[in-house]
Design brief:
Layout: H1 2-28, H2 49-56, H3 61-70, H4 82-93
Length: 96
C-alpha cells in the first residue's frame, strides 16, 4: 500500500510543479500581458486562459501551436518556441 501512496504523492507534486512552471512560463513569454490566468479580470485586453481553453480546447493542441506560430488567427507574434507554446497550451487546457 505504501508504494501506491508514495507514487500518488509524487505524481501530485510533479503535476503541481509543472502547473506552476507553465504558469510562470506564460508570464515570462508575455502571455499574461493580455490573458488573465483566471476568469473575471475584465481589465485584460483579451480572453482569460480558462475562457480560451473552453472555446479553443476542442481544436486540439497541435493545431493551436501551429496557429499561434503561423499567425493564421490574427494573434500577435509569440516569443516562445513551439515546445514552450505547447507547454503553455497544455497548462491552459487544465484550466477549463
Amino acid at each position: 500500500m505504501k508504494p501506491i501512496v508514495c507514487a500518488a504523492a509524487l505524481l501530485a507534486a510533479t503535476f503541481s510543479t509543472t502547473a506552476v512552471a507553465s504558469a510562470d512560463l506564460a508570464r515570462r513569454q508575455g502571455c499574461t500581458n493580455c490573458h488573465a490566468a483566471e476568469d473575471g479580470n475584465r481589465r485584460m485586453p483579451s480572453m482569460s486562459f480558462p475562457a480560451l481553453a473552453k472555446q479553443f480546447g476542442p481544436v486540439g493542441e497541435d493545431k493551436l501551436v501551429a496557429q499561434l506560430h503561423d499567425r493564421s488567427t490574427g494573434h500577435p507574434a509569440v516569443r516562445s518556441s513551439p515546445e514552450q507554446t505547447r507547454q503553455i497550451i497544455r497548462w491552459m487546457l487544465t484550466l477549463k
